[in-house]
Amino acid sequence: MKKVRAIISGRVQGVWFRASTMEKAVECGVSGTVRNLVDGRVELVAEGEDERVDQLLRWAENGPPMAAVDRVDVEVLVSDGGLTGFRIT
């Protein structure tokens, strides 16, 4: 099990990033949350099987078609299995 917090920078708000992230997370079988930050970045917290979380992070490096991701900063957290489902907050 793996749990991460990723901060995604670039043109990531107003481009369906959160909705697309939720769609991809569900497809990957990953639990967590995604939200806009006041500074224009997006925060993603994801938990699941290592390869599935990595797959979601690889997707986040580009995001949906209208996005222009400049950077993805990832912090590995302690996985406690406490996240269920995926939601936009």
Report on this structure:
With 89 residues, the protein is an alpha+beta fold. The protein has one domain (2-78): Alpha-Beta Plaits. 26% of the residues lie in helices and 40% in strands. The chain is built from 2 helices and 5 strands; from the N terminus they run βαββαββ. It has helices spanning 17-28, 50-60, and strands spanning 2-11, 31-36, 42-48, 68-77, 86-88. Strands 4-1-3-2-5 form a 5-stranded mixed sheet, with helices on one face. The longest helix is centred in the first third of the chain and has 12 residues, at 17-28. It is globular, with a radius of gyration of 12 Å. The two termini are 23 Å apart.
What's the helix and strand layout?
Blueprint: E1 2-11, H1 17-28, E2 31-36, E3 42-48, H2 50-60, E4 68-77, E5 86-88
Parallel strand pairs: 2-5
Antiparallel strand pairs: 1-3, 1-4, 2-3
